[in-house]
Amino acid sequence: MISATQGSEVQTGHQAMIHDAQLDFYSRRLATCSSDRTIKVFAVSDEGNQYLCDLQGHDSPVWGVQWAHPRFGNLIASCGYDGQVLVHREHAQNQWSVIYQYKHETSVNSAMWAPHEYGLILAAGSSDGNVSVHYYQPDNTWSVQTFFVTQLGVLSVSWAEATSVGAKTEDGKDVLRIVTGSCDNTAKIWKCEYGQSEWENEFALKQHTGWVRDVAWRPSITTKTNVLASCSQDGTVVIWTQEKAGEEWTSTLLNKFSSPVWRVSWSITGHILGVANGDNETSLWKYSLEKKWEEIAEMPGEEEESTASEIIAEKDTAGTSSAASMAADEGVVKNEESGETASVPPAPQVQQNDMQGGYTQQQEYAEQQLPSYGQYNQQYSHQQQGY
Fold first, then answer.
1. What angle do CA 155, 149, 20 make, to 5 degrees?
2. Which residues, 6 or more positions from 251, have their beta carbon under 8 angstroms from its beta carbon?
3. Which of 11, 13, 123, 371 is most buried, with most CB under 10 Å away?
4. Better-scored residue on pLDDT, 26 or 384
């Protein structure tokens, strides 16, 4: 096993605990969010990191941020303790505004964009027990579906990829799936045929004895099996597997940690799983030729870090990265005031002028090479009433 300690730090300037840190599609910009109610955006590269701007809109701690696929332009979704789900858009270089706002009754703990093949769709899970699904429409409006999960509250949501098992009906229609983690100690799988208005609870996955803190559906680039990971307050990480659509899921205990596990995150190819636990450690796991999960790297944090605020965002773009290179490539986001850090990978090497002109380059890619998010979503327009 490799101990990964090498990395770089991003001085965020946040005035309170950092709860999330996410790179954009190109790994050139980093978004962080904090209990100080702000979202900060940075340009990152091997040559250095540069603060770009703050994003406003939340009235309380911001729990999560996520970049949309670049074909929709430069968009960031955020969620927070104030019950808000916000979509921020960059309308000029480093100038952002809120283009969409939705409010749950209580804290929104997780928000995640759907696979871009489905259009511009956002799911959010709340402590009010509901998941809201937000669909962008061709007329620049948004429609919302909600479904109830549990009275105890939803902590995490994750989408199945468009290539996952069961993602198409026999007549070729798309089937959207979401897995939720909640305070009833259960991970639940929900499905909705595209164009329909009801989300159906397909499976309830029960093995944890504590809150399910996070869930992550494995990318299905190289497999024809559905796999997802869940982690819990009870210290366990469980791998769930489904061989064929409609079949029951089977569980495998990846590990029992000595403290609560806060986050799980797959590499891009789905070969490696990252785990962040309450002992202030991030570990990387891989399924071996002996058909068992093995820890391949460990990244201990500083003694005074709070792992509750960490998120792992590891990267294995080629699918052949060694554990050594992957561990060595991990970077760190740091709060100047409290010393809080979050593990993130560095950006690929780019020219300095590329970093400075990130908005122009990404916008050209989104607008010239691919249709705009409005045009793209038009082909997925929902015609049903009540959205």
1. 20
2. 205, 207, 238, 239, 240, 241
3. 123
4. 26
Reported as a single tens digit per residue, the pLDDT across 88-106 is 999 999 999 999 999 999 9
Residue ranges of domains in the chain:
12-103
Q: What is the pTM of this model?
A: 0.78
Q: What is the DSSP letter of 248?
A: P
> In the structure, what pLDDT confidence band is assigned to residue 375 with cuts at 50, 70 and 90?
very low
Helix (H, G, I), strand (E, B) or coil at 368: helix
pLDDT digit string, tens, across residues 199-256: 999 999 999 999 999 999 999 766 689 999 999 999 999 999 999 888 999 999 999 9
Name residue, tokens 């899921």. 249
Average pLDDT over residues 35-50: 93
Per-residue pLDDT band for 158 (boundaries 50, 70, 90) equals: very high
Cα gap 82→60, rounded to integer Å: 6
Instruction: List own/partner pairs for 322-329 with CB under 8 A and 24 or more apart.
Output: 323/2, 323/272, 323/284, 323/286, 323/296, 323/297, 324/2, 324/297, 326/4, 326/267, 326/272, 326/284, 326/297, 327/2, 327/3, 327/4, 327/6, 327/284, 327/297, 327/299, 328/4, 328/6, 328/7, 329/7
Distance CA 135, CA 270 (A): 27
- What are 71-74's contacts with CB under 8 Å, separation 24+? 71/116, 71/366, 71/370, 71/371, 71/373, 71/376, 72/116, 72/120, 72/366, 72/372, 72/373, 72/376, 72/377, 73/363, 73/366, 73/367, 73/372, 73/373, 74/24, 74/359, 74/362, 74/363, 74/366
C-beta neighbour count of 303 within 10 angstroms: 7
Give the strand pairing for 2-3 and 293-300. parallel
